[in-house]
User: What shape does this take?
Amino acid sequence: MTTSKPKVLATRHFPPDVEKRLAANFDALLNPQDRLYDGPALAKAAAGYAGIMCAAGDPLSAATIEALPDSVKMIATFSVGYEHVDVAAAAKRGIKVSNTPDVLTDATADIALLCLLGAARRAHEGTTMLRTHNWVGWEPTQLMGTHVTGKRLGILGMGRIGQAVADRARAFRMTIHYNNRSRLPADLEKGATFHANPDDMLPHCDFLSINAPLTPQTRKWVNAERIAKMPKGAVVVNTARGGVVDDEALIAALKSGRLAAAGIDVFDGEPKIHQGYYDLQNAFLLPHMGSATVETRNAMGFKALDNLEAFLLNGKTPPDLVKAS
Ligand code: DGY
Assistant: This one.
């Protein structure tokens, strides 16, 4: 007797080894052209599917989830962030949601340091000068940036990624300040200064790294009022979610010189980013590459599959179950 495999809809084109395992263990509908689904198209395509493997940016809003067919029992997102999935709406329909924590911590923290250094040391201007054949040679005053070693770094959100950023920054002898929902135990805090109120941290931020998830509380958290509390000439780094920053305020501060520079990997409304960023020479910009290593993207895919397999094949609770907060 042959038992049919559960059906899983892949909303995106995932790495080859991930799709191989997806197709081996499930009756999978892949998306080799990587066509983007809008909400109604996704709900329609899910007819008859038990699982949806989705990714950051997919429109799994309350409206989409309400429109999903009854066949859908689980949504596994290929991401640690899950603000694109309305978890409360999924819970109401009894649909399990999982994410991929831990496996992208190091890759994302590496990109945060790249953004921090790229912004502080004017990497965008340097590479542009060279590639446009405008480098006239070494000059004593050329492209002088902001010194990193020994400065103060404030981290908004000291979860796994925030802690990994702190570990890397300690190699630059940076002094770490942080805000988190709760204070870390001493072995994880490693001498960093905790600020129960994130606003109190801002005057200590020569550098500010955003590592907090996007929630109603963190939306546009970096605004004009908070930028004014930071030291003049500070540097802002965002590798979490673009929505945590008020783009207008950040762009104005970068233009006026209130902030020296910003290193940004994530944008509100990406890929349609605020036009103002394109004109800023002191913004080091990357296209949401935090987790983009072969090893990390495979690990994310395998983790999403571990969750789908646990629930849809083995009837167990997905190990990375996400709950509505
Ligand atoms: C995530 O996992 O949330 C990342 O932003 C995708 O790289």
Notes: The CA atoms of residues 90 and 225 lie 36 Å apart. The first helix runs from residue 16 to 25. The chain is about 35% helix and 15% strand.
